[in-house]
Structure formats: structure tokens, C-alpha cells
From TrEMBL:
One of its GO terms (molecular function) is heme binding. This is cytochrome-c oxidase. Gene3D superfamilies: 1.10.287.90, Cupredoxins - blue copper proteins. It is a multi-pass membrane protein. It comes from the Bacteria. The gene is coxB. SUPFAM superfamilies: Cupredoxins, Cytochrome c. It is found in: Membrane. Belongs to the cytochrome c oxidase subunit 2 family.
């Protein structure tokens, strides 16, 4: 019963100020609702107790009923809503992208939800925009504004240990401000049903010191080095994959995930398959079985040896 109280997706194990306030708000709501439930249940049992009933006039009955309607039907819900708003509104307001009092600049990260993967952009990176997929790196100890949208249907951006979720709506950009208190890896998940593989739309989130974050961005400024040993695999990629996928210095496809640093990621298919030797070739052969309905076509026209070579080359794409 307590499995949800910890782990990388638990709102009850906060790792940021916004998530901590949300957790305390949740605990307060739970305590208040528990008291209300206990009192109402006790009164309900008392009303149906056995024994002789007290004789009352119709006017007395009306007066008692009026008290219950006003107290239980108006005052109690009204008080509950006022208390919830009094504590909840400030919690939500602190996740808005409001100007900071000291004029501090806030890191901007753009996240786009696709069926069923994540596109992540760093438009303000020194040296030029950085693009990656299904992984999100952020500096620790400072606020970050996440500008989120959807590419096809409504998705939702949610890092439970850092704060509340926000909808990703096609044609609209929503912004949420989150901050990580300490370095670490956090699980993230699409929190709005977006199709058959909604549950398999996961995001790797990692918070790191500012210097490490800047170094991570700098590593991705230059295209990955290419070896002549994989020329045949690159030719295969250009012929069959380049129209959808981008690899810096090789192709500019925009339909599928950016693969420029795929060899440095922890998983494939937005968390569906762990990254290890041979994993990409396995994904290329079985991706429709691993993640049915994804928009990448099957590769039945390519033999196993070609797919193995293609996967081996993609695994070398690491800064």
C-alpha cells in the first residue's frame, strides 16, 4: 500500500520546493478530508442508532434540517474551498514564470510531446541551440522555465518529484517553473492519455551542477565524429532514415526523434528499452512489437546484417 510513497515518480518524495509545497498541500487535504469523513460517518451511525426516537414537532424538524443544510451543505463546503484556495493558489502561483525580484535570468527549456516520445530543445545554449530526445538535463539549485507544447494530440509534462503537471496542447505553449534542490535522476511521465502507448511515454530527467550542465550542452554543439568504418551504415541511414531523423552533420529530418547523441542515452523508445550493446539493432528489428503503433515504419526490406551495422553506427553517436 505504501509503494507510491517513494521512488522516482512519487509526489510524496519531493526533490524541489514546488513539489514540497504540493506534497504538504496534499497531506493537509488528506488530513482534513479524513476528519470530515470520520465525523460524517459517526453522525450517520448515530442517526441510525436503535432505541426510542425523540418526539419532535414539525417546526423542530424543519429547524434541525435547516441547520444541517446550512452547516453541512453551505458552511462546510465553503470553508473547505476557501482553505484550499488560500493554500493552493500561492503554491500554484510559485510555479508561474513570474519575474524574479533580483532580475535573475531563468534557464529556458522547450519540450514538445509527440506520439510517443519527447523532443527537448535548449534555445539559449551558448554557441547555438541544442536538440535531444527522450532525455532532459537541467541545472540544479536554480529555477528553470519549461515551455511545453504538443505536436499532435494533448500530452502532459509531469516530473512528480519536482512539481505539478501541465498540459501540452498543440498550437499553444504553456510554461511551468520548476527547480531541483539536489542533483539526481528523476522519472517523468506523460500525464494525459494520448493514445495506445501513453504509458510507454517516459522521460529521463537529470539535475546536475551548473558547470556540468554547461559542459553537457557544449559537448553537443559540434557534430559527432564520423569514422570511415561505418560509411556503409551512414549511407543506409541517409537512404532510409534521413527524411525523418536528424543526425548533426549527416541529416536534417524533423519528423522523428533527433539521434545526434543517441549513443549517450539511457534508453530507447522513450523508456521502452534499456540502452546497451545491440539494443538499437534489436529496436530496429522489433520496434512495432516493443511499442505497437509507433510511427516508424517496419524495416522488413533490410536484412539483419544491414540493421546490425546501422545499429552499431548509431551506438557510436555520443559526444
Amino acid at each position: 500500500m505504501l509503494v507510491g510513497c517513494s521512488g522516482d515518480r512519487s509526489i510524496l518524495d519531493p526533490a524541489g520546493q514546488a513539489a514540497r509545497e504540493v506534497a504538504w498541500l496534499w497531506w493537509g487535504m488528506l488530513a482534513f478530508s479524513t476528519v470530515v469523513l470520520v465525523v460524517i460517518t459517526a453522525l450517520w451511525l448515530y442517526a441510525f442508532r436503535g432505541g426510542r426516537r425523540v418526539a419532535r414537532s414539525s417546526r423542530d424538524e424543519q429547524r434541525i434540517a435547516r441547520r444541517w443544510i446550512i452547516g453541512g451543505g453551505l458552511l462546510l463546503p465553503g470553508l473547505s474551498i476557501v482553505l484550499l484556495l488560500a493554500f493552493g493558489v500561492p503554491v500554484g502561483q510559485r510555479m508561474l514564470p513570474l519575474p524574479l525580484p533580483d532580475g535573475q535570468q531563468v534557464e529556458r527549456i522547450e519540450v514538445t510531446g509527440h506520439q510517443w516520445w519527447w523532443e527537448v530543445r535548449y534555445p539559449d545554449a551558448e554557441g547555438g541551440e541544442v536538440v535531444t530526445s527522450n532525455q532532459l538535463m537541467m541545472p540544479v539549485g536554480e529555477p528553470v522555465d519549461f515551455h511545453v507544447t504538443g505536436a499532435d494530440v494533448i500530452h502532459a509534462f509531469w516530473i512528480p518529484r519536482l512539481g505539478g503537471k501541465i498540459d501540452m496542447i498543440p498550437g499553444r505553449t504553456n510554461v511551468i517553473r520548476l527547480e531541483a534542490d539536489a542533483s539526481g535522476v528523476f522519472g517523468a511521465q506523460c500525464a494525459e492519455f494520448c493514445g495506445a502507448q501513453h504509458t510507454n511515454m517516459q522521460l529521463h530527467v537529470e539535475a546536475m551542477p551548473r558547470d556540468d550542465f554547461n559542459a553537457w550542452l557544449a559537448e553537443r554543439q559540434a557534430p559527432p565524429e564520423q569514422s570511415d568504418d561505418h560509411q556503409a551504415a551512414r549511407d543506409t541511414f541517409v537512404e532510409h532514415c534521413a527524411s525523418c531523423h536528424r543526425v548533426a552533420g549527416v541529416s536534417d529530418g524533423q519528423q522523428g526523434p533527433d539521434l545526434s547523441d543517441i549513443g549517450d542515452r539511457v534508453s530507447l523508445g522513450a523508456g521502452r528499452l534499456a540502452m546497451e550493446e545491440g539494443a538499437i539493432a534489436h529496436w530496429l528489428r522489433h520496434h512495432q512489437q516493443l511499442k505497437p503503433g509507433n510511427r516508424m515504419p517496419s524495416h522488413d526490406h533490410l536484412d539483419a546484417e544491414t540493421l546490425d551495422a546501422l545499429g552499431a553506427w548509431l551506438e557510436t553517436l555520443s559526444p
